[in-house]
Amino acid sequence: MNRITIKDVANLAGVSKTTVSHVLNQTRFVQEETRQRVLKAVEELGYRPSSIARSLVSKRTKTIGLLISDVGNPFYPDVILGVEEVALANDYSIFLCNTNYDLQRALKYIHTIIDKSVDGVLFMSSSMTLEMVEEVTKHQIHAVVLDWGAMNLEEMASTITINFEVGIQQAIQHLVEIGHRYIAHVSGPLNLWTAQVRRDAFLRALQKFGLDWENAVVIEGDLRIEGGRKALDELMKLDPRPTAVFTANDLMALGLIWSARNYQLNLPADLSVVGLDDIDLSSKVTPPLSTVAMPRNEIGKMAMKMLLELIEAGDSGSKQKVMVDTAFVLRQSTAPLL
Amino acid sequence: MNRITIKDVANLAGVSKTTVSHVLNQTRFVQEETRQRVLKAVEELGYRPSSIARSLVSKRTKTIGLLISDVGNPFYPDVILGVEEVALANDYSIFLCNTNYDLQRALKYIHTIIDKSVDGVLFMSSSMTLEMVEEVTKHQIHAVVLDWGAMNLEEMASTITINFEVGIQQAIQHLVEIGHRYIAHVSGPLNLWTAQVRRDAFLRALQKFGLDWENAVVIEGDLRIEGGRKALDELMKLDPRPTAVFTANDLMALGLIWSARNYQLNLPADLSVVGLDDIDLSSKVTPPLSTVAMPRNEIGKMAMKMLLELIEAGDSGSKQKVMVDTAFVLRQSTAPLL
DNA sequence: TTGAAAGCGCTAACAG
DNA sequence: CTGTTAGCGCTTTCAA
What we know:
Low-confidence stretches of chain A: none
Helix content of chain A: 40-55%
Radius of gyration of chain A: 26 Å
Oligomer: homodimer
Largest interface: A-B, 57 and 57 residues
Number of helices of chain A: 12
Distance between the termini of chain A: 79 Å
């Protein structure tokens, strides 16, 4: 019992493969009566056209590669959902490529998706290199790159950059307005471009509000819960102690908050904390976390749409560069300085 | 500038396509000197064989579909990682199919992956029907189904069933040993098979330890953080109040714990809580959550391995039915009853 | 030790 | 209004 092919349908309907193809794709007029016969045969046999065969001739697979660092990172779910939503609506399938923060692994995925002739790839992992984008585009595969400003990929790919500046500034402004003058930062690993960007935005915000940014306390963290706990340990050693802390992501903020109990700290009264990301959890913990949010779902949708545009446009399309803003979300992890 | 094909390589090397194919696949002996010429041509042109064309003839795509409910559900990351690990090791790619708890959407994905001729599919979503498995297998696509005992798919698919009985029993035993006699349960939506299984296991455990299981308090939750909060509201209305609560998943346990502050409850002294899942977070919150754990990463690996076996075996292979155990993990969200 | 040719399932000129 | 034919890029008999 083999796969049912277009030929089987043609035979059963008593027409040529061509006609079957045309009624299925509505690509030329077919006598209503013939059309019905074909449709009936299709129905009867449960025929489904082979995407493989189609792709071989059309040079299109209706498939994209999604390169992310870590499915477990709470940053991704919303983004993926956005990507998926527009992919699904346009009948695109998604190859999941989880780099697990590993360049070798990313590279292997790049090769696989080139071999599989995807129509495009979404680079959403920090574990990537310029060469990967080059490799991919060399094989006429389109790309859009998320928040990876370290490199200049002008005409190679569309890009989405997240503007942390505005949200971070709002956050610091809020802290200043409620009386804080001594604000520390827990950064991500500073070899990461995105960690530097956030730290620099933080420093600039301090400067803007007339605080001592040159001697600002910056503790390097790991972007995970554990990093937040360790950061608090550092903070507690300081004398005087900062009255507020801004962390490079929510996970560290949460770790810090949860660790505060061990020091008999009463949050937010004894220490105000602001995160960044606005992951799902943040609004649900006690106290709900004030944070710098970005429209993750929108970012996902936008990325996929941009990729679609590149694909539709073929080589003629020029690459877009868009920037998306962040915004401070006030919840209850910050309190006025008494 | 078109795709580089095997023909280009053949021309450059001055041999036939056949020979190129054979050296690349090591499928028959080729004179060392010729072999080198071919390899050199491949290198020079940056040639990569088209998986599409290969699949068309081999009837294998080295691709599987991964059907899950919700990327954001903390149950999945570890499982996915496991799946991916063995997939990657065997050069399989993964189509991400996120049903979003939506049957229609699941169905659409089923059709897509049938069209794309995946070699197998991993059903890991509760949003699925027996028909989907039938549909898939009818198209000679192999399947393994995770924890979905509601139906009898004997010879259609391999299955992995999670044995909640043992872990839940351990959990209740622990609570009983530290003095609890009045233990409530927060279940999942009881129309879900898996929610019933857990509740029943809970009830049987009560019975086993001589507690009043017939009048046991079971509050129906939504498996989300919010559900935990609401459940605590219900619990607080009870008089007398249960001294311990077992929730059907960790998310609800956490919601309950975080909500406890609003009632000035001191955890775990005033209320012991035990979750189920052992999601990453659970060990990292304060107090760390005692919970019923399952080897999620192992489950992912196992599922993919079982699928691989089905694929390799072709139709001859018989379907495996495996069961994986759960185990109670003692942390600090439970306390002896004074 | 290597090639020629057929064919995987489909689409798209080109004919009629 | 419909069919014949070539070909997408590869693998695999069969033959030499």
